[in-house]
Prior knowledge:
globular; single chain; alpha/beta; 5-stranded parallel β-sheet
Amino acid sequence: xQTRRLGRWMxxxxxxxxxxxxxxxxxxxxxxxxxxxxTGARVIVGDAxxxxxxxxxxxxxxxxxxxxxxxxxxxPAGATVxxxxxxxxxxxxxxxxxxxxTTRDALLKDLRDRAFFGISAALSLxxxxxxxxxxxxxxxxxxxxxxxxxxxxxxxxxxGRTDVPYWVTTEADARKAVREQAxxxxxxxxxxxxxxDGKYKKLPPELYTPVIDEAHKAGxxxxxxxxxxxDAKGLLKAGIDAFAHGIRDVDVDDELVALVKxxxxxxxxxxxxxxxxxxxxxxxxxxxSDAEVAKIQAGATDRPRAHEQWQIQARNLKRLSDAGMTIxxxxxxxxxxxxxAEMADMVAxxxxxxxxxxxxxxxxxxxxxMNDTGTIAVGKNADLLVLDGNPAEDITNTRRSSAVYxxxxxxxxxxxxxxxxx
Length: 422
Protein backbone atom coordinates (compact mmCIF):
# COMPACT_ATOMS: atom_id res chain seq x y z
CA UNK A 1 0.00 0.00 0.00
CA GLN A 2 1.51 3.34 -0.99
CA THR A 3 2.17 5.71 1.87
CA ARG A 4 1.50 9.05 0.27
CA ARG A 5 -2.24 8.94 0.76
CA LEU A 6 -2.70 7.25 4.13
CA GLY A 7 -4.50 10.33 5.44
CA ARG A 8 -7.16 10.33 2.77
CA TRP A 9 -9.89 8.50 4.64
CA MET A 10 -9.72 10.12 8.07
CA UNK A 11 -10.70 8.06 11.04
CA UNK A 12 -7.86 5.56 11.35
CA UNK A 13 -8.12 2.08 12.73
CA UNK A 14 -11.32 2.75 14.63
CA UNK A 15 -13.08 3.67 11.41
CA UNK A 16 -11.83 0.55 9.72
CA UNK A 17 -13.12 -1.55 12.56
CA UNK A 18 -16.47 0.19 12.78
CA UNK A 19 -17.73 0.67 9.23
CA UNK A 20 -21.14 -0.83 8.52
CA UNK A 21 -24.47 -0.19 6.91
CA UNK A 22 -26.19 3.10 6.29
CA UNK A 23 -29.16 3.77 8.57
CA UNK A 24 -31.85 2.75 6.12
CA UNK A 25 -34.91 0.59 6.02
CA UNK A 26 -34.19 -3.11 6.19
CA UNK A 27 -35.73 -5.11 3.34
CA UNK A 28 -37.26 -8.50 3.83
CA UNK A 29 -34.70 -11.15 2.96
CA UNK A 30 -35.62 -13.27 -0.03
CA UNK A 31 -34.47 -16.85 -0.21
CA UNK A 32 -32.18 -17.45 -3.15
CA UNK A 33 -34.41 -20.23 -4.45
CA UNK A 34 -37.54 -18.04 -4.68
CA UNK A 35 -38.74 -15.51 -7.22
CA UNK A 36 -38.88 -11.79 -6.52
CA UNK A 37 -40.14 -9.02 -8.79
CA UNK A 38 -39.00 -5.43 -8.23
CA THR A 39 -41.60 -3.17 -9.83
CA GLY A 40 -41.76 0.51 -10.71
CA ALA A 41 -38.07 1.32 -10.33
CA ARG A 42 -35.68 3.16 -12.56
CA VAL A 43 -33.01 0.64 -13.62
CA ILE A 44 -29.45 1.63 -14.47
CA VAL A 45 -28.15 -1.39 -16.35
CA GLY A 46 -24.47 -0.60 -15.83
CA ASP A 47 -23.53 -0.29 -19.48
CA ALA A 48 -23.88 2.62 -21.88
CA UNK A 49 -27.62 2.12 -22.40
CA UNK A 50 -30.17 4.62 -21.15
CA UNK A 51 -31.80 3.93 -17.77
CA UNK A 52 -35.07 2.01 -17.97
CA UNK A 53 -37.90 4.01 -16.41
CA UNK A 54 -40.80 2.24 -14.66
CA UNK A 55 -38.96 -1.04 -14.96
CA UNK A 56 -39.57 -4.51 -13.59
CA UNK A 57 -36.73 -6.80 -12.57
CA UNK A 58 -37.58 -10.46 -11.96
CA UNK A 59 -35.08 -12.47 -9.93
CA UNK A 60 -35.24 -16.26 -9.74
CA UNK A 61 -32.78 -18.49 -7.91
CA UNK A 62 -30.49 -15.54 -7.36
CA UNK A 63 -30.29 -14.71 -11.07
CA UNK A 64 -31.95 -12.00 -13.13
CA UNK A 65 -34.66 -13.76 -15.14
CA UNK A 66 -36.30 -10.73 -16.76
CA UNK A 67 -35.64 -6.99 -16.91
CA UNK A 68 -37.32 -4.28 -18.93
CA UNK A 69 -40.15 -1.75 -19.00
CA UNK A 70 -43.09 -2.88 -16.88
CA UNK A 71 -45.32 -3.25 -19.93
CA UNK A 72 -42.90 -5.80 -21.40
CA UNK A 73 -42.25 -7.97 -18.34
CA UNK A 74 -44.74 -10.48 -16.96
CA UNK A 75 -44.41 -11.08 -13.23
CA PRO A 76 -44.63 -14.84 -12.56
CA ALA A 77 -47.49 -16.11 -10.46
CA GLY A 78 -46.49 -16.55 -6.85
CA ALA A 79 -43.56 -14.16 -7.02
CA THR A 80 -42.77 -11.91 -4.07
CA VAL A 81 -43.41 -8.38 -5.33
CA UNK A 82 -41.25 -5.51 -4.04
CA UNK A 83 -42.72 -2.08 -4.71
CA UNK A 84 -39.73 -0.04 -5.90
CA UNK A 85 -41.59 3.02 -7.17
CA UNK A 86 -39.37 6.06 -6.70
CA UNK A 87 -36.25 3.94 -6.34
CA UNK A 88 -33.26 3.50 -8.64
CA UNK A 89 -31.70 0.06 -8.99
CA UNK A 90 -28.12 -0.25 -10.21
CA UNK A 91 -25.57 -3.07 -10.09
CA UNK A 92 -23.68 -3.41 -6.84
CA UNK A 93 -20.25 -1.74 -6.81
CA UNK A 94 -16.90 -3.49 -7.38
CA UNK A 95 -13.80 -2.17 -5.57
CA UNK A 96 -10.72 -3.24 -7.53
CA UNK A 97 -8.03 -2.01 -5.12
CA UNK A 98 -8.25 -2.65 -1.40
CA UNK A 99 -5.95 -3.79 1.41
CA UNK A 100 -7.99 -5.90 3.82
CA UNK A 101 -7.30 -7.78 7.03
CA THR A 102 -5.16 -10.88 6.75
CA THR A 103 -6.63 -12.98 9.57
CA ARG A 104 -9.83 -14.90 9.03
CA ASP A 105 -11.99 -12.93 11.48
CA ALA A 106 -10.72 -9.54 10.32
CA LEU A 107 -11.15 -10.45 6.67
CA LEU A 108 -14.69 -11.75 7.10
CA LYS A 109 -15.63 -8.54 8.87
CA ASP A 110 -14.09 -6.45 6.11
CA LEU A 111 -16.08 -8.33 3.47
CA ARG A 112 -19.28 -8.07 5.52
CA ASP A 113 -18.79 -4.30 5.88
CA ARG A 114 -18.45 -3.95 2.14
CA ALA A 115 -21.66 -5.83 1.49
CA PHE A 116 -23.45 -3.38 3.78
CA PHE A 117 -22.27 -0.46 1.68
CA GLY A 118 -23.30 -2.08 -1.60
CA ILE A 119 -19.90 -3.46 -2.57
CA SER A 120 -20.30 -6.89 -4.14
CA ALA A 121 -16.61 -7.72 -4.69
CA ALA A 122 -13.16 -6.49 -3.70
CA LEU A 123 -9.66 -7.17 -4.98
CA SER A 124 -6.88 -7.05 -2.40
CA LEU A 125 -3.72 -5.89 -4.14
CA UNK A 126 -1.34 -7.27 -1.53
CA UNK A 127 0.71 -7.82 0.35
CA UNK A 128 -1.36 -10.82 1.47
CA UNK A 129 0.52 -13.67 3.18
CA UNK A 130 -0.34 -17.31 2.55
CA UNK A 131 -2.96 -18.82 4.85
CA UNK A 132 -6.25 -17.20 5.82
CA UNK A 133 -6.63 -14.90 2.79
CA UNK A 134 -6.42 -17.81 0.33
CA UNK A 135 -8.71 -19.94 2.50
CA UNK A 136 -11.41 -17.25 2.70
CA UNK A 137 -11.21 -16.65 -1.04
CA UNK A 138 -11.76 -20.35 -1.67
CA UNK A 139 -14.78 -20.47 0.66
CA UNK A 140 -16.74 -17.64 -1.00
CA UNK A 141 -18.90 -17.10 2.13
CA UNK A 142 -22.52 -16.26 1.28
CA UNK A 143 -23.84 -12.79 2.06
CA UNK A 144 -20.41 -11.14 1.93
CA UNK A 145 -18.54 -9.30 -0.79
CA UNK A 146 -16.61 -11.66 -3.04
CA UNK A 147 -12.89 -11.64 -2.39
CA UNK A 148 -10.02 -11.68 -4.87
CA UNK A 149 -6.34 -11.36 -4.10
CA UNK A 150 -2.92 -10.71 -5.57
CA UNK A 151 -0.99 -12.63 -2.93
CA UNK A 152 2.35 -11.38 -1.68
CA UNK A 153 3.26 -9.05 -4.53
CA UNK A 154 6.73 -8.28 -5.89
CA UNK A 155 9.11 -5.39 -5.29
CA UNK A 156 12.77 -4.63 -4.66
CA UNK A 157 14.16 -4.86 -1.11
CA UNK A 158 12.51 -2.29 1.16
CA UNK A 159 14.05 -2.70 4.64
CA GLY A 160 11.87 -1.15 7.32
CA ARG A 161 8.67 -1.81 5.40
CA THR A 162 6.69 -5.04 5.35
CA ASP A 163 8.66 -8.11 4.35
CA VAL A 164 5.59 -9.99 3.06
CA PRO A 165 6.24 -9.12 -0.62
CA TYR A 166 8.90 -10.92 -2.59
CA TRP A 167 12.07 -8.81 -2.60
CA VAL A 168 13.69 -9.53 -5.95
CA THR A 169 17.06 -8.44 -7.28
CA THR A 170 17.57 -10.75 -10.28
CA GLU A 171 15.52 -11.90 -13.23
CA ALA A 172 15.62 -15.44 -11.87
CA ASP A 173 14.18 -14.27 -8.56
CA ALA A 174 11.47 -12.30 -10.34
CA ARG A 175 10.35 -15.22 -12.48
CA LYS A 176 10.45 -17.62 -9.54
CA ALA A 177 8.25 -15.29 -7.50
CA VAL A 178 5.65 -15.25 -10.27
CA ARG A 179 5.68 -19.02 -10.61
CA GLU A 180 5.20 -19.51 -6.87
CA GLN A 181 2.26 -17.14 -6.78
CA ALA A 182 0.77 -18.73 -9.90
CA UNK A 183 0.94 -22.11 -8.15
CA UNK A 184 -1.21 -20.62 -5.37
CA UNK A 185 -3.74 -19.50 -8.01
CA UNK A 186 -3.69 -15.81 -7.20
CA UNK A 187 -6.04 -13.69 -9.29
CA UNK A 188 -3.43 -11.19 -10.43
CA UNK A 189 0.25 -10.35 -9.86
CA UNK A 190 1.00 -7.06 -8.10
CA UNK A 191 4.26 -5.13 -8.48
CA UNK A 192 5.43 -1.93 -6.84
CA UNK A 193 7.40 0.49 -9.02
CA UNK A 194 8.13 3.32 -6.60
CA UNK A 195 11.23 4.59 -4.84
CA UNK A 196 9.16 5.75 -1.84
CA ASP A 197 10.38 9.36 -2.01
CA GLY A 198 13.92 8.31 -2.83
CA LYS A 199 14.26 5.86 0.06
CA TYR A 200 14.64 2.71 -2.04
CA LYS A 201 15.73 1.57 -5.47
CA LYS A 202 12.56 1.10 -7.47
CA LEU A 203 11.79 -2.07 -9.44
CA PRO A 204 13.58 -1.47 -12.78
CA PRO A 205 12.54 -2.52 -16.30
CA GLU A 206 15.03 -5.38 -16.29
CA LEU A 207 13.04 -6.91 -13.41
CA TYR A 208 9.45 -5.88 -14.09
CA THR A 209 9.63 -6.93 -17.75
CA PRO A 210 10.34 -10.60 -16.88
CA VAL A 211 7.65 -10.46 -14.18
CA ILE A 212 5.12 -9.42 -16.80
CA ASP A 213 6.40 -12.02 -19.27
CA GLU A 214 6.30 -14.86 -16.73
CA ALA A 215 2.83 -13.85 -15.53
CA HIS A 216 1.46 -13.82 -19.06
CA LYS A 217 2.91 -17.29 -19.66
CA ALA A 218 0.89 -18.44 -16.63
CA GLY A 219 -2.29 -16.75 -17.87
CA UNK A 220 -2.06 -14.04 -15.21
CA UNK A 221 -2.20 -10.29 -15.54
CA UNK A 222 0.01 -7.77 -13.75
CA UNK A 223 -1.10 -4.62 -11.92
CA UNK A 224 1.48 -1.98 -11.07
CA UNK A 225 1.68 0.51 -8.24
CA UNK A 226 3.17 3.60 -9.86
CA UNK A 227 3.81 7.24 -9.16
CA UNK A 228 5.74 8.69 -12.11
CA UNK A 229 4.87 9.31 -15.73
CA UNK A 230 8.17 7.83 -16.92
CA ASP A 231 7.46 4.54 -15.17
CA ALA A 232 3.96 4.38 -16.65
CA LYS A 233 5.46 4.67 -20.13
CA GLY A 234 8.01 1.94 -19.46
CA LEU A 235 5.39 -0.40 -18.05
CA LEU A 236 3.07 0.12 -21.00
CA LYS A 237 5.90 -0.73 -23.37
CA ALA A 238 6.64 -3.84 -21.29
CA GLY A 239 3.04 -5.10 -21.55
CA ILE A 240 1.49 -4.12 -18.19
CA ASP A 241 -2.20 -4.94 -17.79
CA ALA A 242 -3.35 -2.45 -15.16
CA PHE A 243 -2.25 0.57 -13.19
CA ALA A 244 -3.22 0.43 -9.51
CA HIS A 245 -2.86 4.22 -9.30
CA GLY A 246 -3.01 7.19 -11.58
CA ILE A 247 0.07 9.16 -12.62
CA ARG A 248 0.84 11.51 -9.76
CA ASP A 249 3.97 13.53 -10.48
CA VAL A 250 3.08 15.51 -13.62
CA ASP A 251 0.40 15.88 -16.26
CA VAL A 252 0.37 13.10 -18.84
CA ASP A 253 1.81 13.94 -22.26
CA ASP A 254 1.02 13.04 -25.84
CA GLU A 255 3.39 10.06 -25.81
CA LEU A 256 1.59 8.46 -22.89
CA VAL A 257 -1.80 9.07 -24.50
CA ALA A 258 -0.56 7.42 -27.71
CA LEU A 259 0.63 4.38 -25.73
CA VAL A 260 -2.77 4.14 -24.06
CA LYS A 261 -4.64 4.41 -27.34
CA UNK A 262 -2.53 1.56 -28.70
CA UNK A 263 -3.59 -0.60 -25.74
CA UNK A 264 -7.10 0.55 -24.72
CA UNK A 265 -7.74 -2.58 -22.65
CA UNK A 266 -5.13 -1.62 -20.08
CA UNK A 267 -7.11 -0.76 -16.95
CA UNK A 268 -6.59 2.37 -14.88
CA UNK A 269 -7.67 2.27 -11.23
CA UNK A 270 -7.10 5.95 -10.41
CA UNK A 271 -7.41 5.88 -6.60
CA UNK A 272 -7.92 9.61 -6.33
CA UNK A 273 -6.08 11.16 -3.37
CA UNK A 274 -7.46 13.43 -0.68
CA UNK A 275 -9.14 16.29 -2.55
CA UNK A 276 -7.96 18.81 0.02
CA UNK A 277 -11.27 20.66 0.26
CA UNK A 278 -14.11 20.95 2.74
CA UNK A 279 -16.50 18.01 2.34
CA UNK A 280 -19.73 16.96 4.03
CA UNK A 281 -19.64 13.53 5.66
CA UNK A 282 -22.97 13.78 7.41
CA UNK A 283 -24.21 10.98 5.11
CA UNK A 284 -22.24 8.57 7.28
CA UNK A 285 -24.36 9.30 10.34
CA UNK A 286 -26.13 6.16 11.44
CA UNK A 287 -23.44 4.04 9.81
CA UNK A 288 -20.58 4.96 12.12
CA SER A 289 -20.54 6.20 15.67
CA ASP A 290 -20.97 9.94 16.18
CA ALA A 291 -17.37 10.13 17.34
CA GLU A 292 -16.11 8.48 14.17
CA VAL A 293 -18.15 10.76 11.91
CA ALA A 294 -16.92 13.79 13.85
CA LYS A 295 -13.31 12.67 13.42
CA ILE A 296 -13.74 12.17 9.68
CA GLN A 297 -15.52 15.51 9.34
CA ALA A 298 -12.79 17.33 11.25
CA GLY A 299 -10.24 16.20 8.69
CA ALA A 300 -12.22 17.48 5.71
CA THR A 301 -10.70 20.96 5.57
CA ASP A 302 -9.30 23.18 2.84
CA ARG A 303 -5.64 22.25 2.22
CA PRO A 304 -4.39 24.01 -0.93
CA ARG A 305 -1.24 21.90 -1.31
CA ALA A 306 -3.24 18.67 -1.17
CA HIS A 307 -5.72 20.09 -3.66
CA GLU A 308 -2.91 20.92 -6.09
CA GLN A 309 -1.78 17.29 -5.97
CA TRP A 310 -5.36 16.12 -6.47
CA GLN A 311 -5.74 18.37 -9.50
CA ILE A 312 -2.80 16.68 -11.25
CA GLN A 313 -4.48 13.31 -10.93
CA ALA A 314 -7.87 14.75 -11.82
CA ARG A 315 -6.57 16.21 -15.08
CA ASN A 316 -4.81 12.95 -15.89
CA LEU A 317 -7.91 10.85 -15.20
CA LYS A 318 -10.05 13.05 -17.41
CA ARG A 319 -7.56 13.01 -20.27
CA LEU A 320 -7.03 9.25 -20.15
CA SER A 321 -10.75 8.59 -19.90
CA ASP A 322 -11.31 10.81 -22.93
CA ALA A 323 -8.57 8.87 -24.74
CA GLY A 324 -10.56 5.67 -24.33
CA MET A 325 -8.65 4.04 -21.48
CA THR A 326 -10.65 1.49 -19.47
CA ILE A 327 -11.35 2.92 -16.01
CA UNK A 328 -12.31 0.98 -12.88
CA UNK A 329 -12.93 2.05 -9.28
CA UNK A 330 -10.53 1.32 -6.42
CA UNK A 331 -9.87 2.85 -3.02
CA UNK A 332 -6.43 1.62 -1.88
CA UNK A 333 -7.24 0.99 1.77
CA UNK A 334 -9.62 -0.66 4.17
CA UNK A 335 -12.57 1.70 4.41
CA UNK A 336 -15.79 0.04 3.32
CA UNK A 337 -17.65 3.23 2.42
CA UNK A 338 -14.75 4.72 0.43
CA UNK A 339 -16.02 3.77 -3.07
CA UNK A 340 -18.89 6.23 -2.66
CA ALA A 341 -16.42 9.05 -2.00
CA GLU A 342 -14.09 7.85 -4.76
CA MET A 343 -16.90 7.91 -7.31
CA ALA A 344 -17.73 11.49 -6.41
CA ASP A 345 -14.06 12.43 -6.82
CA MET A 346 -14.01 10.82 -10.25
CA VAL A 347 -17.01 12.89 -11.32
CA ALA A 348 -15.31 15.99 -9.90
CA UNK A 349 -12.37 15.12 -12.16
CA UNK A 350 -14.56 15.51 -15.23
CA UNK A 351 -15.98 12.05 -15.90
CA UNK A 352 -19.76 11.89 -16.24
CA UNK A 353 -21.81 10.14 -13.55
CA UNK A 354 -22.72 7.38 -16.00
CA UNK A 355 -19.07 6.84 -16.96
CA UNK A 356 -18.22 6.45 -13.30
CA UNK A 357 -21.14 4.06 -12.69
CA UNK A 358 -19.87 1.89 -15.55
CA UNK A 359 -16.35 2.03 -14.10
CA UNK A 360 -17.69 0.91 -10.72
CA UNK A 361 -19.84 -1.92 -12.06
CA UNK A 362 -19.35 -3.37 -15.54
CA UNK A 363 -15.66 -2.45 -15.83
CA UNK A 364 -14.81 -3.60 -12.33
CA UNK A 365 -16.55 -6.92 -12.82
CA UNK A 366 -14.80 -7.45 -16.15
CA UNK A 367 -11.42 -6.64 -14.59
CA UNK A 368 -12.02 -9.30 -11.92
CA UNK A 369 -13.21 -11.68 -14.64
CA MET A 370 -16.63 -12.02 -13.05
CA ASN A 371 -18.82 -12.86 -16.01
CA ASP A 372 -21.87 -13.38 -13.80
CA THR A 373 -22.28 -9.84 -12.47
CA GLY A 374 -21.60 -6.16 -13.19
CA THR A 375 -24.76 -5.33 -15.15
CA ILE A 376 -28.48 -5.82 -14.65
CA ALA A 377 -29.08 -8.27 -17.47
CA VAL A 378 -30.76 -11.63 -17.90
CA GLY A 379 -28.59 -14.45 -16.59
CA LYS A 380 -26.48 -12.25 -14.32
CA ASN A 381 -26.41 -12.54 -10.55
CA ALA A 382 -28.90 -10.26 -8.83
CA ASP A 383 -26.21 -8.17 -7.15
CA LEU A 384 -28.27 -5.03 -6.74
CA LEU A 385 -28.01 -1.66 -5.05
CA VAL A 386 -31.46 -0.13 -4.45
CA LEU A 387 -31.23 3.65 -4.02
CA ASP A 388 -33.47 6.50 -2.93
CA GLY A 389 -32.03 8.78 -5.60
CA ASN A 390 -30.72 8.70 -9.16
CA PRO A 391 -26.89 8.52 -9.34
CA ALA A 392 -26.96 9.19 -13.08
CA GLU A 393 -28.06 12.71 -12.15
CA ASP A 394 -26.04 13.09 -8.94
CA ILE A 395 -23.35 10.50 -8.22
CA THR A 396 -23.64 11.08 -4.47
CA ASN A 397 -27.00 9.31 -4.64
CA THR A 398 -25.09 6.01 -4.49
CA ARG A 399 -24.86 6.84 -0.76
CA ARG A 400 -28.65 6.87 -0.38
CA SER A 401 -29.00 3.12 -0.16
CA SER A 402 -32.39 1.58 0.61
CA ALA A 403 -31.33 -2.06 0.22
CA VAL A 404 -28.52 -4.28 -1.02
CA TYR A 405 -29.02 -7.70 -2.61
CA UNK A 406 -26.29 -10.24 -3.30
CA UNK A 407 -27.35 -13.12 -5.53
CA UNK A 408 -30.94 -12.12 -4.91
CA UNK A 409 -30.70 -12.23 -1.11
CA UNK A 410 -31.17 -9.04 0.88
CA UNK A 411 -28.18 -8.13 3.02
CA UNK A 412 -29.25 -7.87 6.66
CA UNK A 413 -27.28 -4.73 7.42
CA UNK A 414 -29.09 -3.81 10.63
CA UNK A 415 -27.86 -7.01 12.30
CA UNK A 416 -24.28 -5.78 12.57
CA UNK A 417 -24.71 -2.06 13.15
CA UNK A 418 -21.69 -0.99 15.25
CA UNK A 419 -21.98 -0.06 18.88
CA UNK A 420 -22.47 3.67 19.14
CA UNK A 421 -24.07 4.17 15.72
CA UNK A 422 -27.44 5.87 15.91
